[in-house]
Amino acid sequence: MARLVIVSNRVSMPRERLSRAGGLAVAIREALNQYGGLWFGWSGEMSATPDGEPRKASQGRVEFAVIDLTPEEHRLFYLEFANSILWPLCHYRLGLIDFSRAAWEGYLAVNDRFADVLARQLQPDDIIWVHDYHFIPMAAALRRRGVANRIGFFLHVPFPAPEVLAALPGHERLVRDLCAYDLVGFQTKNDVRALTEYILHEVNGQVGDNGHIAAFGRTLQVAAFPIGIDTEGFAKLGAAAADGPEALRLRDSLAGRSLVIGVDRLDYSKGIPQRFEAFYDLLSNNSEFRGKVTFMQVAPISRGEVMQYRKLRNELDALTGRINGKFAEFDWVPVRYLNKSFPRQHLAAFYRVARVGLITPLRDGMNLVAKEYVAAQDPEDPGVLVLSRFAGAAREMGGAVIVNPYDPEHLAEALARALKMPLEERAQRWRYNMDVLRNNTITHWRERFLKALNGPVS
What we know:
The chain is an alpha/beta fold and 458 residues long.
């Protein structure tokens, strides 16, 4: 196929260790390694003046090109619009949106500047794949610069329902720009339905049975492409980590107790406070679990400069103190709350040890942690996935115990059920989920998207 060009907010440069990279970075690097091409985006750094040309590096068949943001662009584009407007909008948290026209204009201006730089790097037959909410206007900006290449877009976060999206000033411009792509991919059919309903009822567009949308003078294709993981690779990582030093240290520290684990970025969309409340209810109403179960929450700090995230951290610090203050014994601390990141092989070890994976976002595009937890399990003695119904993964992972994260008492009951679940049921649920993961790997995801970008969706 033609050269693949990836556009994303952050670029994982050759010097960065994939063991610490997120799921999207790993997926992109693997796609580029397979096809060869260019990965373009923000460097993660700031400079006083805008770049004229990108800084480049290469590794094998992959070229990397990055540019800096100015401090003003970082504030308006990244902090204010992407993270304080689009992120809460897509996660249905309208009360957290702090809209300003300056941020909106800054968002569009950064997309224009990135399009200026990218257009000069393109070849006529390149296939362009743009990722996530930071660059929704990218295709429209490229089209204005005469770029006629096939351009696809994949949204990793949820797409809001029309009634929610309409709360955003400028929502029609945002959707108009989205329609400049040839293919728009979402995590779930719910997201597809949200866009098609907007097209039908807000702009009087047309929606065909085959996933084609006609609006704003263009026809594009829209479909769900639920993202997967490297299932066998992560399963091997979990098996190799089972007797590694991290797993042994963790087991020794537990002293025979059951482990419940949550792994999330520190973000208000992840439902972590509700999870802590549920664990409090579990210990309050089930004395049999006191001294027998440890809950470990890994939550690396992200976007620490945003006020809502600072408030969340303070709330979780207080909840940790409340739970441990009431229930801890001299030889047992109920909650281990870790504000740090770990390499993938360490996380695989933690998942392997944990009896329960507690993944309960209030809303999430997919949630790859849920899939990695399942893949890392011991087939002879697997743990139980407790999963929010509002994670995209819940559409696939029918072997999970599905919960409503807004109800801590219900969540505590599900947690107790998972901790008591007999081996036969645990194994049956695990096999169901593993079949799903093996049938929809990260390779299947990217192959299906790229095939659709070059032709009809299968």
